[in-house]
Amino acid sequence: MKPFGYLRPTSVAEAVRAGAGHPGARFLGGGTNLVDLMKLGVESPGLLVDVSRLPLDRMTRTDDGGLRIGATVRNSDLAAHPDVRSGYPALSQALLAGASGQLRNTATTGGNLLQRTRCPYFQDVSKPCNKRVPGSGCPAREGAHRDLAVLGHSQDCVATNPSDMAVALAALDATVQLHGPEGERTVPVTDFHRLPGDNPDQDTVIRPGELITEVVLPPPPDGSVSLYRKARDRASYAFALASVAAVLSVRDGRVDRVSLAFGGLAHRPWRARVAEDLLRGVPTTGDAFARAVDAELDAARPLRDNAFKVGLARRMAVGALVELTSRAVPA
Ligand SMILES: Cc1cc2nc3c(=O)[nH]c(=O)nc-3n(C[C@H](O)[C@H](O)[C@H](O)COP(=O)(O)OP(=O)(O)OC[C@H]3O[C@@H](n4cnc5c(N)ncnc54)[C@H](O)[C@@H]3O)c2cc1C
Ligand code: SF4
C-alpha cells in the first residue's frame, strides 16, 4: 500500500473543503470496500478524509412522514430500524441479504452506494480494464462474464453494480443528498448510478469533492407492500446474480401502484419503467405480470455465458409480484 495522509474532520464543511482541496482525496466511510481496493493497488488515494465521525449517523422522520438517513448510518442499524422494518421492508431485506454481519456493522449508507464493481478484472491490476485505466480495454466481454451485465452494457464495459441496498432504494424512490464545493444538490437514486457508455470509469454522477450527506425516503405509499429477493451462488456472503425489489398496492383486484427494480443485471440498479407502465391497472394475475416483465427484459443483450440471468430475473420478478399480491391489503 502506498503512503497516504489521514484527516478526521468534525464538520461537513471541513470534510468537503478537505476533499475538494486534495485531488487525490477519498472519503472513508466504513472502509470495507475502499481499504480492500487500496490493498489490491486499485485505489491509491493521497489523502483519506474519514467521515465516520461526522454528525451524519442519525435517522429522523421527515415532515411528510418519510425517512432521512444519515450517510454514516451503519447498514446493520438501518436494516434493524423499526421504521424501516415496518414501512420499507424491501430495504431491510436488501441490506440483510448483503455481505456478513461483521461487514454490515461497519459499512455505511454512503459507502454502500459508492462501492465499486466486483468484476474480477477491475480488481486485478495485472489485467487491462477500462473502468480502472480508461482506454486499456475490457477483457470481460470475451472472458469471464458469467456474473456480469445483460442490460445497458456497452462495448467498453459489461460490469454490474454490486449494491443490494441501492436496488431497494431505487424501487422506493429514494433521493441522495450531496454536499460539494459548489453547494448542495439532490439526485434521485435512479439517476445516481450511470450506464457505462464510453466512459465506464465514472460509476455515478457524483462530482469531484462531493460528499453524500444523507439518503431520503418518501413516505411509503398508502396500502403498499414491498419485498426484496436475491439469487446468488451461495446462501450467504455472495453478490447477486439477479435480484428484485418490488413495491405494490392493489385496488379492486388490479394493480394500483407498482415499482420494480432489478439488481445484478446492469451497471446500475435497473428500474423497470417499461414493465411498470404495462402493469398499472392490469388484473393481478401471473400472466399479466409475466407479459409486463417480458417486455422489460426484451431489452436484455446477454453475453456468451450469462443468458441464464434473463430467465432467472423474469421468474424472480413475477414471483415477487404474485407474492406481494397475496399480501396486499385490498382497497
Ligand atoms: C466479502 C464482502 C462481501 C460483500 N457482500 C456484499 C453483498 O452481498 N451485497 C452488497 O450490497 N454489498 C456487499 N459487500 C460490500 C459492502 O456492502 C460494502 O463494502 C460497503 O457497503 C461499503 O461501505 P463502507 O462504508 O465500508 O464504504 P467505504 O469502503 O468506506 O467507501 C466506499 C466508497 O464510498 C466512498 N464514500 C464513503 N462514504 C462516502 C460519503 N459519505 N460521501 C461520498 N463518498 C463516500 C469512498 O470514498 C469509497 O470510494 C461486501 C463486501 C465484502 C468485503
Ligand atoms: S467489465 Fe468493466 S470493470 Fe470489468 S474489465 Fe470490462 S471495463 Fe473493466
UniProtKB/TrEMBL annotation:
Coiled coil region boundaries: none
Keywords: Oxidoreductase
Database matches in SUPFAM superfamilies: CO dehydrogenase flavoprotein C-terminal domain-like (SSF55447), FAD-binding/transporter-associated domain-like (SSF56176)
Signal peptide: none
Origin superkingdom: Bacteria
Domain FAD-binding PCMH-type, first and last residues per copy: 1-222
Membrane-spanning intervals of the chain: none
UniProt-recorded name of the protein: Xanthine dehydrogenase family protein subunit M
PROSITE patterns reported in the protein's UniProt record: FAD_PCMH
Keyword Transcription found: no
Entry-linked InterPro entries: CO_DH_flav_C, CO_DH_flav_C_dom_sf, Diverse_Substr_Oxidored, FAD-bd_PCMH, FAD-bd_PCMH-like_sf, FAD-bd_PCMH_sub1, FAD-bd_PCMH_sub2, Mopterin_DH_FAD-bd
Organism: Streptomyces glycanivorans
UniProt KW 4Fe-4S keyword: no
